[in-house]
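Page 47, continued from p. 46.
Same chain as before, 173 aa.
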Amino acid sequence: MIFYTADHHFSHANIIKYENRIFLDIDEMNVFMIKRWNEVVQDDDIVYYLGDFSFDKPALFLKKLKGRKILLKGNHDRRTSTHYLQAGFEKVEKEMFITDMDKKIVLSHEPKRIWDGIHEGVYHFHGHLHSKDVESFVANRYNVGVDVWNYYPKSADEIIFGKNLISEDFSLL
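Result:
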């Protein structure tokens, strides 16, 4: 299985306030988001992480998260690619073009207005905006950030078809 997600901002206390997240503090946020991730991701799954992973100690969080993780660096992922590889990401890129089943997808942290294949049905997945909408609607462009998807990584079909196959129950807190 392949999943996509972004913008956890592990150990970033101000993100709770900026995004009006449901958590009392970063410890509660970190534990909750790890639990959500591991509810859907299995050890052999691939997770494309579209930027802004953590403010501190990425290895600490990566070892707690299931799956094989590939980082598309975001504006808050300021350490070297080597650092993120040593922390546990299998690969680190700024942008990627992949095929997931029959879907061609451009991956990056920040949303693009135009990308290769935009008029041929190529999708664009991004993070960066958190719960904010893209300034203008563009077909086939999707925000995969955790603030949009109830803190779960999502498959391409769930993202494209707007399916939220997991309960919206916050009782895990």
